[in-house]
TrEMBL record:
It comes from the Eukaryota. 2-oxoglutarate(2OG)-dependent dioxygenase that catalyzes the conversion of 2-oxoglutarate to succinate and CO(2) in an iron-dependent manner. However, does not couple 2OG turnover to the hydroxylation of acyl-coenzyme A derivatives, implying that it is not directly involved in phytanoyl coenzyme-A metabolism. Does not show detectable activity towards fatty acid CoA thioesters. It holds the Pfam family PhyH. Its cofactor is Fe cation. Keywords: Iron, Metal-binding. Belongs to the PhyH family. PHYHD1 subfamily. PANTHER family: PHYTANOYL-COA DIOXYGENASE DOMAIN CONTAINING 1, PHYTANOYL-COA DIOXYGENASE DOMAIN-CONTAINING PROTEIN 1. It comes from Astatotilapia calliptera. The keyword Iron applies. Gene3D superfamilies: q2cbj1_9rhob like domain. One of its GO terms (molecular function) is metal ion binding. The gene is PHYHD1. This is Phytanoyl-CoA dioxygenase domain-containing protein 1.
Amino acid sequence: MDFMTDQDVQRYQEDGYVVLDGLLTSQECDELRQRMAEIVERMDVPEHCRTTFSTYHDEQLKTQGNADYFITSGDRIRFFFEKGVFDDKGEFIVPKQRSLNKVGHALHAYEPLYEKVTHSPKVQGIAKKLGLVSPVILQSMFIFKQPGIGGEVTPHQDATFLYTEPLGRVMGVWIALEDATINNGCLWFIPGSHNSGITRRMVRTPKGTFPLTDFIGREQTYDDEKFVAAPVKKGGVILIHGQVVHRSAENTSEESRHVYTFHIMEAQQTRWSPDNWLQPTEDLPFPPLYT
């Protein structure tokens, strides 16, 4: 029996996202979280890498794109921190495990547990059910959404950052490693918004110029009332169309909201934009999903 039903496919096509329960067992979720705790415990944080991560437009340019650390992280495992976790001397003022916003962007390539989940029969089955012929993995991230300080992620479309021609070839696979609730910062979507194209793109600037990335187009404002909450149980997954508008609120609760997420692109008859911040490298071409 297929993990994803015809009804699920229809919901994904109509709304631009769908929530599916039971992609991973509770034990599999715990193993991924435990492995990440080990990675964080051993992390070495160079001074220049103490880059805070935000989705506010200007800060995004300053902290993500400007930092060579970010733009060269596509084939590496690197660490991105919440705001206000270091003092003026660059020392932690919160426990190390509570300091991170995310770890990315190549867990799927270098960490066997994450690679196994990314290429699991269920994930491959989802891609086949959606008719993907030649899907590849673009990037992967562990997102922490720390208790009390996990920042807001403002409304956005993934295709702003992961642009293809034609559009509609990118899908996010967002796996809840803990319950994602309204209290701890679950995702919210505007159903059907994937049908309206995109209004802006983040692009690499010409070589030798600074900042390293910039936005073209305009940032859109959205009516709060159009957003629908998408809570998901531990082990569940949300499939996210590259153009659907989504956001998440701050985590003001005392519970974390750990997630493993990765993006898939249908590579057949698709052009990956050479202007995207993320580029395949000799070390790590975009690996095929089907194994």
